[in-house]
Here is the input.
Amino acid sequence: MMMLSLVAFQKHVGQAKSEKSKTGKTLVVCPLSLLHQWKNEALERFLPNTLSVHVYYGDDRDIGASLTKSDLVLTTYGVLSAEFEKNGLLTTTDWNRVILDEAHSIKNRSTGYFKTCSAVKATHRWCLTGTPIQNTLDDMFSLLCFLQYQPWSRVAWWKRVITKPYGDGDDVNALGRLKVLLTPILLRRTKHSRDKQGNMIVKLPPKHIDLVKLEFSPDERAFYQAVFDKSRAEFNGFVARGTAATSYVAIFALLLRLRQACDHPLLALGKNFEQALKTDKSGEGIAATIRSVFQPQQNESSEAYYQRIAAQLQKDMQASNRSQLTEGGSDSSDKESGSSGGLTASYIQSVIAQVEDGLESQECPICLDPPQNAVLTPCAHILCDPCLRGSLANDPENGCPVCRTVVDMAKVFKLPPPSTQSQEEDTKANGPADNVEDLQTADDGSGFESVKLRQLLRDLKAIKLENDKAESPELKRKVVVFSQWTSMLDMVSGLLTRHGFSHRSFNGGLNQEARERVLTKFAKDPSIEVLVISLKAGGVGLNLTCASVVILLDPWWNPGVEEQAVDRVHRLGQTQDVIVKRYVVKDTVEDMILQLQQRKEKLAKHVLVVAKAHDDRRSERLNLDDLRNFFH
Here is the structure.
């Protein structure tokens, strides 16, 4: 609203008038999910004909006249990057003002997003973000570079005055200087900000956060322990060989498997066996082996299935340990990816499944975010292009950061961005996706159990019971369910369908039109009870105040991402108190993730609020001791 008011005021006083044919007024760059939000806010908050708005996306990318005549031009980071590559209108126009919404999208200075946004020509520059620091102080430096805030946007100055003193332990002076340089340019508004009279500038209903500590069933615990023991053995192998410091990517892959096991055991197993079943019906070769081990047997209970898989994992681990002793300590993870003995069919199928599942649901093993400008190495690993290039530049002899295979950049395949083709949201919303049909989870014996899905079903039934007692529709609660893995959301969708909960799904695979339909339906149709949503696709910018309950199925590395997701519901326009439930399984890697979140929250708070010494001044990046704690 503040930005829209600024645009409207500028138009009123006539400051934006120009006779130059290639002069634009205000350009807003935002994630795709926020285009609808910006357009609606601009049209609904002002009287008709107050602001002219042009959405520069898809079929609406027309001639430049609309760009120079419109008060507000809206586009996405992806479109802007495409325009930059072809020297298009957005990057050749001289703008009066450019606004980056969710500006932390450019936190990595080696990405195309950062380079493209920095190249936009504009007199005035604004960054809007609720999380300017997500991981390290350099996240803030990227924003200063975009703002062209001299001399602090020079690397030499930044390192000498901020990051080097901070890294050397001089926290007080480093953070004090950062606070001083931010004061003239930082306008910070929180839900707790007050005006000069001491009144809250924004009055919101209370928010209640419930950390729900869950206990695995005995069979789930046995399964998790088997995965953990296998992962710990691999980690200890890295340590014993002295390669742990150069094997962070492979170690994070082990952690990813453990995190997924906390959500549902089938996520940890991956889709390799499922894809092999689909592509090899003959019962021969690798597919037959996968089928015999991982496919649920006829009339086999979930308890028996997990016990059998746990036993198989233990057997694999013991065999791997014996192999390492006889073969001189070769890395078992190499065999998994095929880097030592050739790519296995099952591994290739799992990579294909990752691409089909949507890149927004994957993690780059270096930056731990969904891959930007994703690439596929010849050894079949998916990474951000800048992350891969940066890794090779720092240590080219080590090769692929996952498996150490020599990488020929000429053979690296650039993966297409998430699809923007038209999709019918009802297919995704009202039933499980076809490729997880056999993996659907239930609590009634019809599928495979998961402690988080059992808890979700209990919570939703309790809310439904309260809704049935509500005296008016306005008092009924809608629920938003977040997860970072779309496969988990597919399972949730199947669970809701079987138990009669009307719902919609929102993920990065939907195009702009389909996203608008899903959000409009959820907001305006009282029969839709639940929105199942990807944390990365819908965790920023959206207005979901029609809901009042948020359920976070899994913790994210960065607490700011979770906070942003909750703020989709607890924001201006909310009329009910907001209930937040965070699911965490006891005695798992999720406990360590909570500790990591506390450290990152402390860093962000010290930079933005007050400069003072850290109680714990360890590096923001996980060090070897941190990793040992995960596998302790």
Remarks:
- Residues 429 and 504 are 4 Å apart (CA to CA).
- The first helix runs from residue 2 to 13.
- The mean pLDDT is 75.
- The longest strand covers residues 23-30.
